[in-house]
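User: My collaborator sent over this chain with a note saying "see what the structure looks like." That's all I know about it. Can you take a look?
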Amino acid sequence: QVQLVESGGGLVQVGGSLRLSCAASGRTISSYAMGWFRQAPGKEREFVAAISWSGDNTMYADSVKGRFTISRDNAKNTVYLQMNSLKPEDTAVYYCAAGTSTSYIFNLNVRSWGQGTQVTVSS
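Assistant: Without extra context I'll predict from the sequence alone. Here is the result:
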């Protein structure tokens, strides 16, 4: 089982940027598709982005397309989420996830979850 730890969250103003990191341990992530989800207070956890094990294929929620970019560095066992043009509705706890494929992750079929990192966008 791979263990995941997110970092990089914080407080940012509208229009600002943040880069989240997800460091894995226990197993290499090179055989996993990886993804990011978020959960706002009172709402269900929702898919944000996913990337295939090779990095060749990515998927994004419509709400973040064009603003967020998911990437990975298998040598560092780390996945990233670059978030630009942040909006108040992006405020949530962001979770890293590992899964069999991007499609599995999109459908919340996840093998491992991180603990989450808070992102707050203030207006």
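A starting point for your reply to your collaborator: The chain is about 5% helix and 50% strand.
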